[in-house]
Amino acid sequence: MYPEHTGHLPAERAVTIHQPAPLAPYDLAAPVAMDPYAERQPVVWVPDAYGRMVPMPKHLAPPPAVASEPRDLTPLPLLDPVAQRLMGAGIGGGALSAGAGYGISEVINAAAGFSGGALIWIALVVLALRTPARAITSGKGSTVNIRKAVIKRSHFHG
């Protein structure tokens, strides 16, 4: 290919060129390792990345895809039954708490009203019991006489 004597020294060449060895013709007399038919593994055909079917040893093939179970397509309720129960319990619990609070407040108000009203009634009863006692003592109670006198004097300086 390239002439050996170009006038340049081999050290002055910029690129070292590799000369490949010539290929030997196929020798039919040489023993070739054979793969007997009985020792072959079974081959399966699987799709490659481009959709073509390619052969592959069965022990290297991916496992077959398992068929998925059919889905249940019945319509579901608008609200989950558990959520409905929790919501009902929350509303019922709130109503129970409101009713209990209202009832307790009514009891407290009644107690406060009873104590205030009871004091007035006790005072009236005490006054009613003491009033006849004064009347029974034959007038020896304290008597107050009020006398009102109006004196009008006119002066004429004229």
Explain what this protein looks like in three dimensions.
By secondary structure, the protein is mostly helical. It has a domain at 84-136. Helices cover 35% and strands 6% of the residues. The protein has one helix and two strands; from the N terminus they run E-E-H. The chain has one helix at 81-136; strands at 43-47, 53-57. The chain has a two-stranded antiparallel ribbon. The chain is rod-shaped, with a radius of gyration of 62 Å. The termini are far apart. The mean pLDDT is 78.
Quick summary of this structure?
Keywords: Membrane, Transmembrane, Transmembrane helix. By secondary structure, this protein is mainly alpha-helical. 35% of the residues lie in helices and 6% in strands.
Element pattern in H and E: EEH
Q: Catalogue the unreliable spans.
A: none
Could you give a short account of the major beta sheet?
2 strands, antiparallel
In the sheet with the most strands, the strands line up as 1-2
Total beta-strand segments:
2
Classification by helices and strands:
mainly alpha
Ends distance? 171 Å
Radius of gyration: 62 Å
Overall 3D form: rod-shaped
The average pLDDT is 78
Helix content: 25-40%
Number of helices: 1
Strand content: 5-15%
